[in-house]
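To the wet lab folks,

You asked to see what we're planning to order before we commit. Fair enough. Below is the target structure as tokens, and below that is the sequence we designed to fit it. If anything looks off to you, flag it before the synthesis order goes out.
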């Protein structure tokens, strides 16, 4: 079995597996091995592992995992430093403080006892759950609802590749690559489906659903089947307040809204996400979570500072918009049909095999992700700094010409 097939067919890519460090060491030393490896590392976190295993000078642009290249703000870093003197203690107060910040920010009731009335994992009336990244809460939702029935998803969306792990009913996107809400509403069946997952803006397409259409969909579907709206990229939408679906939670609908601080707030390595939802639904998924106990004190304190630092958020949004426009203009001029993006990444169809493109770009020190759907290869490029985007456009020009 060659190295590529071995990688595909083994569990060796999971963190902690013994063979992985050796392969990554090889990738560190040998650009050819790096290219071959990268072609298999289709998932964000695996790509991140490879990037970490490469000599820093070999990575010109890390545009494969929709990270925030501007990093934690100065005030957020200060909060992390200040938290360290208290980090020998469990994070009771910091956790309560953050719940308060989120409840004010999103206008939802403050949890009576976010950790659960009867201790960790006990009964709770909370509208908010903190997680170690939104991944913890998303996984918990998939485990809970996946054990009750089939999860309806768009095809493709962030979780549609998990159909081997969880029962999924994939509904093809429309010809303009939007969620087909009409088809989904028509198809939803409480006897079969246990959850409808909507990623808005969608990953990997980057487009955004019209808010009124999504609200209508939730009104129609959520009395039959709970709806989970993954708003990982909502902060990049033009009008996040109109586009976010927390008002549906407030109306008492069967809805969970998922948020992450990994994107606009640059917390990918800090790990913080949260769910806002009907308390009964959050209670259902909490048995698969650590009930907020997995979030460290420095992260909790940093999150308060990051939310308060609105100047920094504005700076990140402005720079993202500038880099996104530069990249979209370049691609359109080169004849590519870019899907309009409301996120910190964009997707466009390419004329070569996606893995070939990612491998070749990797050779130029540029990391992007490939997708295949609708009979077509696609490149998804995260939005980085202007320097990174110029590295991407230079490398892309070289690779496709
Ligand atoms: C749509 C979507 N949801 C959830 C996540 C998970 O984010 P995290 O666990 O870093 O909060 C991601 C990460 O890229 C994402 O794209």
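Sequence we intend to order:
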């Amino acid at each position: 079995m060659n190295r590529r097939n071995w990688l595909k067919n083994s569990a060796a890519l999971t963190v902690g597996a013994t063979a992985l460090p050796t392969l990554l060491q090889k990738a560190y030393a040998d650009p050819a091995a790096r290219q071959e490896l990268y072609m298999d590392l289709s998932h964000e976190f695996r790509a991140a592992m490879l990037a970490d295993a490469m000599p820093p000078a070999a990575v010109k642009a890390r545009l494969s995992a929709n990270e925030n290249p501007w990093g934690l703000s100065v005030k957020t870093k200060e909060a992390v430093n200040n938290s360290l003197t208290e980090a020998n203690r469990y994070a009771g107060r910091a956790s309560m403080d953050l719940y308060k910040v989120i409840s004010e920010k999103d206008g939802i009731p403050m949890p009576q006892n976010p950790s659960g009335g009867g201790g960790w994992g006990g009964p709770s009336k909370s509208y908010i759950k903190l997680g170690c990244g939104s991944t913890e809460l998303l996984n918990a939702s998939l485990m809970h609802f996946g054990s009750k029935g089939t999860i309806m998803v768009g095809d493709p969306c962030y979780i549609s590749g998990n159909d081997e792990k969880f029962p999924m009913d994939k509904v093809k996107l429309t010809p303009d690559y939007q969620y087909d809400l009409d088809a989904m509403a028509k198809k939803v069946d409480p006897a079969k489906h246990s959850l409808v997952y909507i990623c808005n803006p969608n990953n990997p397409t980057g487009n955004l659903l019209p808010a009124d259409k999504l609200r209508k969909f939730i009104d129609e579907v959520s009395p039959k089947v709970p709806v989970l709206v993954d708003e990982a990229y909502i902060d990049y939408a033009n009008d996040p307040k109109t586009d976010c679906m927390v008002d549906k939670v407030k109306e008492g609908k069967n809805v969970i809204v998922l948020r992450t601080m990994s994107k606009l707030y640059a917390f990918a390595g800090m790990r913080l996400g949260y769910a806002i939802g009907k308390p009964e639904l959050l209670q259902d998924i909490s048995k698969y979570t650590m009930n907020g106990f997995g979030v460290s004190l420095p992260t909790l304190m940093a999150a308060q500072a990051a939310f308060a630092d609105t100047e920094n958020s504005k700076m990140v949004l402005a720079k993202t918009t500038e880099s996104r426009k530069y990249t979209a203009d370049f691609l359109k001029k080169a004849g590519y049909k870019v899907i309009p993006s409301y996120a910190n990444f964009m997707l466009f169809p390419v004329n070569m095999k996606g893995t070939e493109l990612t491998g070749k770009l990797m050779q130029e020190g540029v990391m992007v992700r490939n997708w295949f759907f609708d009979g077509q290869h696609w490149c998804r490029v995260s939005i980085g700094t202007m320097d990174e985007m110029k590295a991407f456009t230079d490398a892309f020009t070289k690779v496709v010409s």
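Structural context that might help your review: Residues 44, 66, 133-135, 138, 158, 199, 203, 230, 232, 260, 262, 268, 273 surround pyridoxal-5'-phosphate (CB under 6 Å). Confidence is low (pLDDT under 50) at residues 1-18, 116-123.

Thanks,
Computational group
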